[in-house]
Design brief:
Layout (H helix, E strand, L loop, with lengths): L1 E9 L9 E7 L21 E2 L2 H8 L6 E5 L9 H10 L3 E6 L12 E4 L14 H10 L3 H10 L2 E7 L4 H12 L8 E5 L4 H18 L2 E2 L3 H6 L6
Parallel strand pairs: 2-4, 4-5, 5-6, 6-7, 7-8, 8-9
Antiparallel strand pairs: 1-2, 1-3
Helix pairs in contact: 1-2
């Protein structure tokens, strides 16, 4: 599989925020989010081709028990299921960070961090016409999200750019026809700088209070800035 980076850091997002973790970032994505903060793993995939054994060996160099499989989109990476199984066999806690456009297929996973994409994610049609059409057709797959929810411990994480996004989220949740506890739905302000995140944090926190959703900060930006390997 093509791996953009493997690093030991602090989980910055979701219910395990603050947890020391080893991140395995696969390269390649089936979406093209306008605000993507890892273009080196999505828009222009780069990295090294590694075997499952080589990835596991690199993970084991670090002391953390928690391992995060992320991307790009890790669920399109060849041998991702074999990697997850190998890590599970070694007693690692596995989080998979996915846009939930690919069904789980029984993959080993302790926490599925599902991040379906809103309308705000669509790339500029003037520059990326073909990708915008593909992105819009693929970004929201309620049947796939249901497959994850029915089989795993999950959190739903939405990237929010404006207050109106919350109505779109409510509509998506209704389409799932599942009882998803509000505390499992996390709203994260879009941004790659502390200033940008704080600009949206105030009104988004108020919306979370009103709707019962969980506000999701981006701890890694606060700690390290928008840098690779963090």
């Amino acid at each position: 599989m093509l791996v953009a980076e493997i690093f030991h850091s602090i989980q910055g997002e979701g219910e395990l925020a603050g947890m020391p973790s080893v991140f395995v970032r696969t390269s390649g994505c089936n979406l093209r989010c306008a605000w993507c903060d890892t273009p080196y793993a999505s828009w222009r995939p780069e990295g090294a081709v590694m075997t499952v054994e080589a990835v596991v060996a690199e993970v084991l160099r670090h002391p953390a028990r928690h391992v995060v499989l992320t991307g790009g989109e890790p669920m399109i990476a060849p041998e991702i299921a074999a990697l997850a199984a190998a890590l599970r066999g070694l007693g690692r806690h596995i989080t998979i960070e996915t846009a939930a456009t690919v069904a789980p297929g029984g993959i080993a996973c302790d926490l599925a961090s599902l991040s379906p994409k809103l309308l705000n994610s669509a790339p500029d049609p003037r520059q990326h016409g073909a990708w915008r059409r593909k992105h819009e057709a693929l970004r929201w797959q309620p049947a796939v999200v249901r497959a994850w929810l029915d089989a795993y411990a999950c959190q739903l994480k939405f990237v929010v750019t404006q207050p109106g996004d919350v109505e779109e989220i409510e509509g998506m949740l209704a389409q799932l026809a599942r009882e998803v506890p509000r505390h499992q739905v996390q709203l994260m302000p879009e941004g790659t700088t502390v200033a940008g995140l704080r600009e949206r944090a105030g009104w988004l926190a108020e919306l979370c209070k009103q709707r019962g959703f969980r506000f999701a900060p981006r701890l890694q930006i606060e700690l390290y800035g928008n840098r690779r390997g963090t």
